[in-house]
Write a structure and sequence with these properties.
Blueprint: H1 2-24, H2 27-39, E1 44-50, H3 55-67, E2 72-75, E3 78-88, H4 93-98, E4 106-111, E5 114-120, H5 125-137
Parallel strand pairs: 1-3
Antiparallel strand pairs: 1-4, 2-3, 4-5
Length: 138
């Protein structure tokens, strides 16, 4: 009886270990890890969540691309690096869910890896640039 219980316990432990290993090596886990690497740096990360079928997203895209030409800003005579990311919610649904993205487009502003602000909907180029500066000061 003890041998049977021990065998079942070992099989259970092995299957749990396999499940953890599969999760660790899954593409979704890799996507999340890559996302975290991108936003965790000394500077501002601006992340736009969109969908190819979303009309407001299509209108926002060229404004975001225009803003993305500025890779740094000066604040108090100090250069602050800016990184821009665009994520399609249909390709990265898990990341969108973790970031609690609802309506799209949604723009997240991170400073030094910490979420500072979430903006729902399409915003103007001027407003986007102002948000970047505001979040750099937070």
């Amino acid at each position: 009886m003890k041998i049977k219980i021990l065998t079942i316990t070992l099989l259970l432990i092995n299957s749990i270990h396999s499940a953890i290993t599969e999760l660790k090596n899954s593409p979704i886990n890799q996507q999340i890890e890559n996302y975290n690497k991108e936003i965790n740096f000394q500077g501002i990360a601006v992340v736009k969540f969109y969908a190819t079928w979303c009309q407001p997203c299509k209108l926002y895209a060229p404004l975001f691309e225009q803003a993305a030409k500025d890779l740094e800003i000066m604040i108090d005579n100090k250069k602050i690096q800016i990184k821009y990311l665009s994520l399609d919610i249909d390709k990265y649904p898990k990341i969108a869910a973790i970031c609690k993205v609802g309506p799209i487009p949604t723009t997240l502003f991170y400073k030094n890896g910490s979420l500072k602000e979430t903006v729902l909907g399409r915003i103007t180029l001027e407003n986007l640039k102002n948000k970047i500066k505001q979040n750099a000061l937070k």
